[in-house]
């Protein structure tokens, strides 16, 4: 289902231009228009008509902030033409703790982007097809599963695939805005809606500063995703920076026009947010299109394009989150599996982790966008702040290096722009935190420090291991004593003979250990039979060869667990032979079919685990396999692609030169 | 929760007398009174009042059959004073196939005994407390869980614990019968009920032979459990056979009186079965006690005792099923784990298996006794038949051995009795199969041959392994070539040094293999660093010691999976060195805490599995552990009891005599 595995060499670094860059990196930002204004309106709804009138001013503040972010990220792209993600910028300029704060905020932001994108997309769908309302959560989870599978498969051609719905969305809403603005002007500011939006709710709260702050905080979600271009500069075709700049400009200008237009038209047509939890929910975009253009074919095309880009905006997270996790894991702050490329050349662990986290969030909040929004903007704006603050430090360093340069005034301007960005975004963070704390913002506030503590603990664990493993001593070539070999034996059979033969290759000090009374109190041990066979098959030929036969010893396991007496024996041997290795040789039947495991008591596996775990540093465990059925060809252990790969083994061990394999190559 | 582990020596063989034997082995039989007559009545209910009148004759036939079974098992106890289970008797006298048929029938019977006992017990509870009716299935599953836990813990004192409810049940229903019969006689056969039973349903079917046959088939469930004494003869105190005989007599006579009495009173009071699936359900016993003695304190004591013995009768399965499975597993027809005594000296696997099977049955049939009954009697009566037929063959053999003995006439009588038993029970089986086929009997009919096929397949699998493992050749003492050792290496560290040191103990032909490009295409290999450290730490000291240093080779894994290129290397080496062992040495970090596994890519474990599974017969895998934290004391790997156990290791390997451990003991 996920396609054939891909080889390392197949990871091609295709580059993109502006036309592909807008859909690939602008989806998250552009799709915010679908929930940002709505989020502000659903707060303002409490003040009724007065609230609606306040949407314009609130949106003006948001657009001003957007302009500041635009200027700031313009500079970040210039300064970090490879990858200017908040994590990298903070790490470069603010140190480890700040970068971890950025990483934690970004991770939470990514998870929420996925959850909000999907839930808002389903919101658009439910607006168009109200009969689907009861299935909001299952629809959300279904879309999440599809996105996860698509991303596990790898989305190398995603950019092109995403272009159609993105440009369709922009075109549709450009038409809506033009028609709507024209109608508004023609009617003197009071256009008649084609399909009337639901009656605005009664005011239940006076319009005050607190309400305005909360509306601003919710509306800020409209700006999320602006940072995407700065994260992906290295994806652009040369001249890289200029392509990225133009892409950023297209995205931000389009976003600004859409946001402003939506705010203007919502005010003009008297469109308010409705409650997504209630049947009859109509998203703001749906009301807007209905009011301006009616509910004809155009309506469905526009809503379908909105649904598409919302779901695809969730895809931004599936691209960004695993890459971020990989960077963090390479720095040792996340478990190593996050840094491992899966069979389709994607970071599968990160994708799965994101899917599970977003799924849990969707399930916990019932797939309702409005409930997720309070958690959302905090992470995004913290990321903005960290990135901008990092840039301020970056320009300070640059200034320090160019004491006499003529460009100093320019760098002062750049520093000032990023400082304004940092200041405004931190103010926004504070506003958002204060305004949304009770509605769910506290979850993000609690989650971020927890994530940082976890990241640091993981790094500390890896550092501890590395410190203990570090080794400056050379290999010791002094001859050491041969190991003491213990062989577990149940009865005399081919498996036993094979194990003993190999044991004698290792050492002359071989002891076979039979563990008795494992099956319970009533079972007569087959001790005598084993002793007789031993005398016949082991001791008699030893006399003929004048060799020392392996000893046979019996251990009793009164609690029917093999490993307790065995570990005691090992401990005793270690005490008496502190300078020797104890090799525990465990003959094992190899099982190839799953049901064979049901038919076995799995003693070999359990004994191996126990000896490895508790045996101590002088023990090694040797597994001697015995194949019940002939071992399958090694091709079965690999994919067709791996089997077709030329045998690298031919190039090593001097095979090519037909030397004896134990002579050295160089 | 399950208590401390028990040592083999703690498995005490306590013996019982008649007074303990009746509760311990009679529960299954006596509790059948609670559902047997009811099962017959619920069939007869279709014929209304005429059906009720037919209960007496049907019950008389059942009592006659019970008498035959009594005589037959009396003889089985005499002939098999150790254990006369149907499996043993059939195996001794009828061969493997018959014994497997008996085993399959018995297993199904045991599972159904557990399910029916619990569902009938809950039926009694629901009759007394109708508000619990909606919770029938959860109550059933709850009781099943409690029984499972109690049995996993081991029920050494079960016999004594079971005595109280058993004798209470007998006493209560003796009083009911005496009062009822007295009232019936005093009133001239038409006693007035204290609490009137529900009005009998309208007749929907004429009373015909088919209905009578079905009623008989259902009523036969009243006889299940009679075989228990013959299974457990070895539990009795000496004189064993006479104790067992007296116990069997007490059980069968009590059962007969109860069955006859219930049939008589049900007819006299006009008591009919009601539908357990409907609210307002009243079990026949509940109606009977209500009609005879009213719904006072006595009613609740009687119903409580019925509930207890029904649930405890399910316990009979928990004792019998695991022991049967163990016998079958020892003969190789069931997976070996069934024969392994668990930490509490019980056959835990069998207990769990029974619990799961009974739970699935209860869930599938909603915990309704009436739906389970059609499946039930078939297994039980097949078991009876197999046992009786086996006894017939037994007496024929005995007769063959005593051609001139004076006792021959006696043996002819014995043979005749068992032949009558075998004939009547096989007739009953046919009747039951025909009568219950559609209602669910087919499930048992299908399940039994499936089970036999499965049992034989398991035996064939084990036989196949044994045949391949059997070995008559002695150990080969000719000196063989030392193994080719491959060591997996990631970087130079203590783990690598330890592994290489041990590798050099094994052979001079050591190759370190570094697998590159595992993390994905973008990761720069640290090949050069490793080569430099290798020259420094391995090759330089080798020159100083004039030793041959281990080689270092690089393998590339283009699909990022370690095992494919590694297995190809092994295959190549095997082709070139068909006479040598290839030892794959895998250094491994030992993880003691569960979360450490999350932090690791588990490459060592995965490589070990792949090499063991596909490496072929010339490969052995050596695990060299390295402890991140100091290895915990071996006491942590064992229970307190195991740690307190005297160290047997002191007795082996000549420790006691203070010999050097590698000199031989004898």
Keywords:
666 residues, mainly alpha, Amino acid/polyamine transporter I, Rossmann fold, 5-stranded parallel β-sheet, 62% helix, 5% strand, disordered C terminus
At a glance:
The structure is a homodimer. The first copy, chain A, is mainly alpha-helical and about 675 residues long. The first copy, chain A, has helices at about 20-30, 35-45, 50-80, 85-95, 95-130, 135-155, 160-185, 210-220, 230, 240-270, 285-295, 295-330, 350-365, 370-400, 410-470, 495-505, 525-545, 565-575, 595-600, 605-615, 640-645; strands at about 485-490, 510-515, 550-555, 580-590, 620-625.
How would you characterize the overall build of this protein?
- The structure is a homodimer of 666-residue chains.
- With 666 residues, chain A is mostly helical.
- The first copy, chain A, folds into two domains: 23-461, Up-down Bundle (Amino acid/polyamine transporter I); 484-657, HUPs (Rossmann fold, 3-Layer(aba) Sandwich), CATH 3.40.50.620.
- Helix content of chain A is 62%, strand content 5%.
- Chain A is built from 21 helices and five strands.
- The first copy, chain A, has a five-stranded parallel sheet with strand order 3-2-1-4-5, sandwiched between helices.
- The longest helix of chain A has 62 residues, at 408-469.
- Chain A is elongated, with a radius of gyration of 34 Å.
- The two termini of chain A are 46 Å apart.
- Mean pLDDT of chain A is 85; it is low at 654-666.
- The interface between A and B is large, with 142 and 142 residues.
